[in-house]
Amino acid sequence: MAATPYLVALALIEQEGKRALPLAGRSLSAEAAAAEQPTQAAHSLALELLLRLWQRSDEGTLRRACGVESLLLVELPMECLPEDLPRIKADWLNSGDTEAFQANLQAICGRAWTMSIAKFEAVALSAWPG
pTM here? Predict the structure, then answer.
């Protein structure tokens, strides 16, 4: 993995019958990149992304497109951001082929997690693919 990886939170959703894939991201510090899980950065990105989704709900009903694997956190090398990630995103938006999306994303990311939450607990990160 690159010395300064980029952390990206993405949500695979459907809204009013159309696929959408909003995301949020930021560079990781060397300390966060070395940690087993980038917990603090993950919580911040999850909040940012979910606030965007909440605002978007004014435009119509939202639905998770991939069940528990609809909210992902991935660590990518910076060089994948300008071309690889937008191509993978566009392919999924156009085709809806979730298996191809997941395989292509796994091919470029270093570490990845699904994000979830349980009542009275903090955001939990689970290794992806599980």
Answer: 0.89
